[in-house]
Design a protein that fits this description.
The complex is a heterodimer of chains A (about 575) and B (about 240). In chain A, about 35% of the residues lie in helices and about 20% in strands. By secondary structure, chain A is an alpha/beta fold. With about 240 residues, chain B is of the alpha+beta class.
């Protein structure tokens, strides 16, 4: 049986960081459902935060201020020790990335350039124009080539195999050969990214179905704070492609149909550079009040930055606007609307990236440490992936060096793979039933409508009922294509199960949390309620249904206070 | 608007030859080729295979040939093809794995040969490297490469000469040797001073033409040639040292 000491699932930034920091004397492999360079990390644009103090306006910046901004931005739901850990590591992380080859943009004097970002007290976002994700992902991939990392590409993990609280390995669907393969491991790290495509309108790649988080959940690993879903304020009208926060960081305005910079009414001090939850709600409120265009968008205006600055600092979004909206932002304001962007919640792990299941770790967007709490600041997710990916690689190596083998591991894995194969055969035998794309479309529309920026009890409860109906319909799903090689139909059918699970966990967490905090806005409970709700939601799949429990937030130096921007 | 899609189909494990299959597709909206392919797959034929991921022209998954033109399916609008007939083919000069999915291994292997990683020296400088922005600007053209494989697949030399590294890998090498942080010794990268390397290019500039990201790999190859000559002359200089 194929066997490795460490299996890393996911070839984006967190996965590659984990691979590069794992003990090279161990047998390490990365499994990815796409070639690593096709991972969604590649689409990150605006930058990565670290208090380098290179911007003249950021001379007094330091990691403590970065940590404070992160915690305040999280609406005090972040665990303060982990947020501090991330921010303490930030500067060294940037210098390491630079030394590995990342071509950051520069300031005069040759130091790394930094731009202002939302919710940050100082300009501390390092960037490579507006293609920061591309350059960091390519750099880490290059280093993986240098270190001869073993990759299994176009392998989709369909199941995390856990027995008696111990992780044994995974089952994969090998797309090229249409085989279902058990892979044994002493320990597994998931770095499988987010679930944006559970929503109709999302900035995420088509592949972001959240099947990694779903596989962990079905194996009994608790999920944390999944009700906290980030909606990015500025996605391009139509395809909802991300238009970086860097556009506002460089000085862009948000303007309604009256020609007003409406952020004045919502966050008079920080204006366009308020945290994402606040700006996204402000935009939606303007649209709902009739101050949008065609009842669906407002303008992001960067014309006043001038052609030279736009071409130099924001070439990527200019290209996106030209390619996908047929307009040049040098001459025309960009039509934007909020769209799902990021998951603050995820697989419940501690600051070592370890979960409740022995030998199972998670890092990056699929994990919840929690450093982002109820709302993540822009520029902190790339930092999270690299810092915690690295921690995961180190900690899992330590774990594996001390781990004992498990008896019957092979048998359990073989059984799981066979069971999965039979399930696929079952889908294949049917010649009629439900088609995946219809079911998926219904779920996405539902989540967009009922569990979006503004939530209330009735809608959430109704949503849960509809998810149950969709679960029943999923029982009748079938495979219509005759060939299972490179079958995206099969990939989608497998991943749709996770989408249902995650939709349920998001909705259930949101329904129970009778307060407003960060990205979670309840129209029927419009205030934050620290007395009852300063705690993490944990949802665990037990006996065929989700069970809710709660866990304390680690409060350190900063007592929760009202957020004002 | 009604379109007729002619899509190349081939499963090398079942079919003797590739063949074209017709699908009619109707839409009133502005759609990309990728979106159309996904709808055709979902509604008409789930056995149709192709790669995709980001849908915003940054991940490089969906490179293919559309009415004879190399491009990313996600950034190509149906209307821009200006024809009711849309012929969709996989990237040529690579083995078809299934339908529009090709085996890019030769492309990745060529990349590995140029040692595609920064050869930085010494410990991490305490406050980072000092590099002027103009120097970063000079490499950014090549940094923008998304490794989609269009140039490699379109290059007439790649199709004839098996050991030719191809445009993307050579441009990537130039990106590194031009990087002020990169300290790889000349003898190390002068291995491309061959017909399989920088001198293999026939300056047909197909790579520049097909690149969806305006990287212009041939600029990099030309610059690499100049650098090879300069370094060679330097190494022959009897007054050196």
């Amino acid at each position: 049986m194929l066997s490795h000491d460490i299996l890393i699932v996911g070839g984006g930034l967190a996965g590659l960081s984990a691979a590069l920091s794992s003990d090279p004397s161990l047998s390490v492999a990365v499994i990815s459902k796409v070639h690593p360079l096709r991972s969604h990390s590649v689409a990150a644009q605006g930058g990565i935060n670290a208090a380098l103090g290179n911007n003249p306006d950021g001379k007094d910046d330091n990691w403590e201020r970065h940590a404070f901004d992160t915690i305040k931005g999280s609406d005090y739901l972040a665990d303060q020790d982990t947020a501090e850990l991330m921010c303490q590591e930030a500067s060294l992380t940037i210098y390491e990335l630079e030394h590995l080859g990342v071509p950051f943009s520069r300031f005069p004097g040759g130091v790394i350039a930094q731009r202002p970002f939302g919710g940050a007290g100082f300009p501390r976002t390092c960037y490579a124009a507006d293609r920061t994700g591309l350059v960091i992902l390519h750099t880490l991939y290059e280093q993986s080539v240098r270190q001869n990392v073993r990759f299994y590409n176009e392998w989709l993990v369909t199941q995390l195999v856990v027995k008696d609280g111990r992780c044994l390995g995974v089952v994969v669907y090998d797309l090229e050969n249409a085989e279902f393969i058990p892979v044994q491991a002493k320990a597994v790290v998931f770095a499988t990214g987010g679930y944006g495509r559970v929503y109709m309108k999302t900035t995420n790649a088509f592949i972001n179905h959240g099947s990694g988080i779903g596989a962990a959940y079905r194996a009994g690993v608790p999920l944390k704070d999944l009700e906290f879903v980030q909606f990015h304020p500025t996605s391009l009208l139509g395809k909802n492609i991300l238009i970086t926060e860097g556009a506002r960081g460089e000085g862009g305005y948000l303007v309604n149909n009256k020609g007003r910079r409406f952020m004045e009414d919502y966050a008079p001090q920080s204006m366009e550079l308020s945290p994402r939850d606040i700006v996204a709600r402000a935009i939606q409120t303007e649209i709902d009040k009739g101050n949008g265009y065609e009842s669906q968008y407002v303008h992001l205006d960067i014309r006043h930055l001038g052609a030279e600055k736009i071409k130099k600092r924001l070439p990527g979004i200019r290209e996106i606007c030209i390619n996908f909206a047929g307009l040049d932002p040098i001459d025309t304001p960009i039509p934007i609307q909020p769209a799902q962007h990021y998951s603050m919640g995820g697989i419940d792990v501690d600051k070592n990236c370890a979960s409740a299941v022995e030998g199972f770790y998670a890092a990056g967007e699929c994990a919840c440490v929690s450093v982002h709490g109820a709302n993540r600041l822009g520029g902190n997710s790339l930092l999270d992936t690299v810092v915690f990916g690295k921690i995961a690689g180190k900690k899992i190596s330590e774990y594996v060096r001390g781990a004992n083998g498990v008896t019957d591991s092979e048998k359990n894995l073989l059984d799981a793979a066979l069971k999965f194969k039979n399930r696929v055969e079952g889908w294949r035998k049917k010649d009629s039933g439900e088609k995946f794309h219809i079911l998926m479309g219904r779920l996405k529309a539902l989540m967009n409508e009922k569990v979006g920026l503004f939530r209330n009890k009735n809608e959430l409860a109704h949503c849960l009922e509809t998810i149950q109906e969709l679960r029943e319909a999923y029982e009748h799903v079938y495979i219509s294509g005759p060939c299972l090689r490179f079958s995206q139909e099969l990939v989608n059918i497998i991943e749709y199960e996770s989408m249902l699970d995650l939709a349920e966990v998001i909705t259930l967490g949101a329904l129970n949390r009778d307060e407003t905090r960060g990205s979670h806005y309840r129209l029927d409970f419009e205030k934050r309620n620290d007395e009852e709700w300063l705690k993490h939601t944990l949802i665990t799949w037990q006996e065929g249904k989700p069970q809710i429990s709660y866990k304390d937030v680690f409060i350190g130096k900063y007592q929760p206070a009202e957020r004002k921007y | 608007m009604e379109y007729l899609f002619k899509i190349l189909r081939f499963d090398p494990r079942q079919d003797e030859h590739p063949y074209f299959q017709d699908y009619s597709y109707e839409t009133e909206e502005t759609k990309s080729v990728l979106e159309a392919l996904m709808e055709i797959r979902n509604v008409q034929d789930c056995s149709l295979s192709f790669r995709y991921s980001c849908r915003e022209a940054i991940c490089g998954s969906c490179a293919m040939v559309l009415n004879g033109k190399f491009d990313l399916a996600c950034r190509t609008e149906l209307e821009s093809l200006d024809s009711p007939l849309i012929v969709v083919e996989p990237l040529p000069n690579l083995e078809i794995q299934k339908d529009l999915v090709v085996d890019l291994d030769p492309f990745w292997e060529a990349l590995v040969k140029i040692e595609p990683f920064l050869h930085s020296e010494g410990a991490i400088p305490e406050k980072g490297h000092r590099i002027e922005d103009e120097k970063i600007d000079k490499i950014f053209q090549y940094v923008n490469c998304i490794l989609c494989g269009c140039c490699y697949s379109a290059c007439p030399v790649v199709s004839k000469r098996e050991n030719y590294l191809g445009p993307a890998a050579l441009a990537k090498l130039y990106r590194f040797v031009k990087d002020p942080r990169d300290k790889r010794p000349f003898k190390n990268w002068s291995r491309v001073n061959t017909e399989g390397g920088a001198w293999g290019c026939h300056t047909i500039f197909k790579c520049n033409e097909v690149c969806p990201k305006e990287v212009r790999p041939a600029d990099g190859i030309e610059a690499l040639r100049r650098k090879l000559i300069v370094e060679k002359i330097k190494s022959l200089n009897p007054f050196k040292r």
